[in-house]
Amino acid sequence: MVPVRRRGGPYLRSRTPPPDARGLNLPHDPAFFIVASIAVILVGIAKGGFAGLGAASMPILVLVMDPVPAAAMLLPILIVQDVVGVWAFRRSFDMPTLKLMVPGAIVGVFLGWLLATIVPVDAVRALVGAIAVIFGGYRLAGAYGVSPTIKGTLPNWVGVFWGGVSGFTSQVAHAGGPPFQIWALGRNFPPNVFIGTSAIFFAAMNWMKVPAYFALGQFTTANLQLTLVFMPVAIASTFAGVWLVRRLSPARFATIISLLMVVVGLELLRQAFT
Predict the structure, then answer these.
(1) pTM value?
(2) Spatial separation of the C-alpha atoms in residues 241 and 250, rounded to whole Å
(3) What is the residue extent of each domain of the chain?
(4) Helix residue ranges per DSSP H, the chain
């Protein structure tokens, strides 16, 4: 399955090209690898210390792939990278928050899978674009101190609800961070507990998504080959993120990426509706 451009944006063919000299079914368009590399690098940099930047990777990748195969291609990379975060913070997490949000996430992942089975590709593309615009705007608002959080004592179902929203947006666009933060930031956790709870929550949720993408038939040989090709890029960019976070302002870098999310999201909406 390779990306080709049709009216309204790039799509994946159902027919794969002849294997190259190494027996791999890979795209031959250099633009695909440039754009996909940018998306994967953002995933790695996010894991290296620039929390939240990974939400921009999926909208960028959808510029050159259909949304569901793009998400399936990124998922094994995310799972491998989760190992480091879970191990590092395995003793620093809030179990009550996980007990509230994980059940909601299960429902959200299921609804995201169900959506992908019943709507056309442009509808999913539009949803990814809308999520990018909304969450990019959310992060820009946070840069000016107006990002919403939920504080105080609230019924447990509110935490379950935001867990569900996080599961849904994560299944559709690997963008479950902002809904999780809306609930968790208001709990006033110490930084290590917040990071550890987030790491464990998203690691668990990424494994929940594996059966969903299997059911959608997206772990194809061609897609897994792409994952293997880009895995070294993701690992290298994780170390680059660790290096960069000590030299650049994460807040300023996040603002730039948030603006990029809004621009890319608007482009995906344009593609979906033209």
Answers:
(1) 0.81
(2) 10
(3) 3-14+28-272
(4) 30-47, 57-61, 67-88, 95-118, 121-143, 156-173, 177-184, 191-215, 221-245, 250-272
